[in-house]
Structures are given as C-alpha cells and as structure tokens.
Amino acid sequence: MKDCLFCKIIKKELPSKIVYEDDNFFAFNDINPVAPIHILIIPKKHIPSVNSLTASDKELIGELFLVAQKIARAEKATETGYRLTFNVGENAGQTVEHLHLHLLGGKKLLWS
Ligand code: AMP
Ligand code: ZN
C-alpha cells in the first residue's frame, strides 16, 4: 500500500527500531511508548484493521500471536506479564490503518 506509514516502515523507506522480522511479520518499538516495553507487531500484508480480516487471514493471525509470544519471551515479559491490544477504529483511537498488535509490558499495567 503506497501511502501507508507502516508499509513504508516494513520496506525500510522510513526508519524504525526493529525488534523482529520474518517472512510474514515485522515488529518495532513504538515511537511514543506508554510502557517500558511497547512494541508494535504487524503483518507484512497490508490489512487496514481487525474489521478487514477475512477467513483467508486465519492462519496469519494465528501466527501473529505466536510471534507475539516469541517477542514477549525475548523481552523477558512472559513471567511478569504483558498485554496484547488491537485498537479498532475511532472509539479505540486507532490512528494507523495497518493492522498492528501492541505488546505492552515491563510495568504493572492499569486497566481503564
Ligand atoms: P494505534 O493508536 O493503535 O493506531 O497505534 C498506532 C501507534 O503507532 C501509536 O502508538 C504510535 O505511537 C505509533 N507510531 C506512529 N508512528 C510511528 C512510527 N513512525 N514509528 C513507530 N511507531 C509509530
Ligand atoms: Zn500498510
């Protein structure tokens, strides 16, 4: 997707602090972290949001959670705990229209 910020980050046309990359996924530090660990995990396939998922994405999304677990383990967050969040649409404050899973951890997280 030509004008998508995260597609540009995947293609390394824009800089990011890369945490993980494989054939299907890319993960990088959030530029405006709200926790000591704040990583965005994204599929390389441009999918705008959870609303756009179809049955053909089932395997990819399953794999996304395994990647999240792998990153959480590498960040030493599996024992202390962490949060995985998708913001979807306006009420949730989604600002980038490329599916991204927030991985938050490194402190006790509040729930509001
Ligand atoms: P959301 O509000 O769920 O759409 O999350 C988008 C996230 O992307 C926010 O937490 C932003 O801080 C983050 N973000 C925006 N631009 C960049 C960037 N260039 N590099 C890293 N993170 C970014
Ligand atoms: Zn994109």
Automatic annotation (TrEMBL):
Active site positions: 100 (tele-amp-histidine intermediate)
GO terms, molecular function: catalytic activity
The protein's name: Histidine triad nucleotide-binding protein
Native source species: Candidatus Nealsonbacteria bacterium RBG_13_42_11
Domain of life according to the entry: Bacteria
All residue ranges annotated as the HIT domain in the record: 5-112
Lineage: Bacteria, Candidatus Nealsoniibacteriota
Database matches in InterPro entries: Histidine_triad_CS (IPR019808), Histidine_triad_HIT (IPR001310), HIT-like (IPR011146), HIT-like_sf (IPR036265)
PANTHER family recorded: HISTIDINE TRIAD HIT PROTEIN
Motif (Histidine triad motif): 98-102
